[in-house]
Amino acid sequence: MATLTINEAAAATGWSPRMLRYVEQLGLVESPRSAAGYRLYGPAQLQRLRTLRELLVGHGVELGDLGFALRLRREPDLALALDTWFEAAPRRPAAVDDDADWLAFEQDKHQTLLMTATRSS
Prior knowledge:
Layout: H1 6-13, H2 17-25, H3 43-59, H4 63-74, H5 76-87, H6 99-120
């Protein structure tokens, strides 16, 4: 079967070699490798790249969006966690008396998380 190198595939599709690597990293298009480890692009990969571009343009989404959508399909626990989060209604903690206290409570929690993250960096 005839195949193209990454540079030839980039020239044929309008994607840069860097973007082709990113598309592969996201798992959106898989390219087989030569014995020397070079990416090879055949008709199937070129078709996927063409239809990928059509999908992006047709629906106004980014590559990262599609990568995340694929991740949701592969990780049911993540999909469930997101569904749960989307459906959850905000609730004031029982120990907090009113909205002003609730705001201060949330600000303190965020400040603590930021300080912890800053120390970890």
